[in-house]
Amino acid sequence: MGLMFILPKDEKEIDRVEIRDGEITLKSYGLPLIFWGYLGAGLTVLFAMILAVKGPLVKLYHIDDPINKVLVLAVIITIAAIILFLFCFFFYEKFLSKKGNQIKLIHRIFFIPIIKKAYELKDEKSLYVKHYLDSPNVAKMRGDAAYKGFENRGYFQLCMKTKNNVEVLLDRSSQKRDLIRIKELLEKY
Length: 189
Description:
By secondary structure, this protein is an alpha+beta fold. 38% of the residues lie in helices and 29% in strands.
């Protein structure tokens, strides 16, 4: 999610960085306003679909066949699940807290903590940034300048090693310098 829900990179970002009792908490930014436009467009299409199938669904439900009632309920549940999923995506927040060798990672939806995990760093050098490329870079292997725009550059990951020598992904970004700044910010506390 780090490619869309960006963490702050500087202590000066007051509304997204909280420093209290030697602990720093980074709060992810929400999605840009253009995505809210996409949500509005998607919900408009969904609303039009609901209006189009409302009449046939009502008629189908009033037939005494239990399979028809199950189908109608399945359609209603599916539409409701799509709407709920879209809103969950837009009200997701990620919190990353560090105090000493303790790191807490909290994922919230609708301001409710869904996943809370606490980790203990192996040592002070346990935070690191690495490059991630999941498929061969075929366009680069060809060496032809015409394929330059099609090169798979992958992305970068901010990871940590825990006391148990387990690698944990904290964040990811297409910009290495952003993750390095987050790493340096976390290492201060």
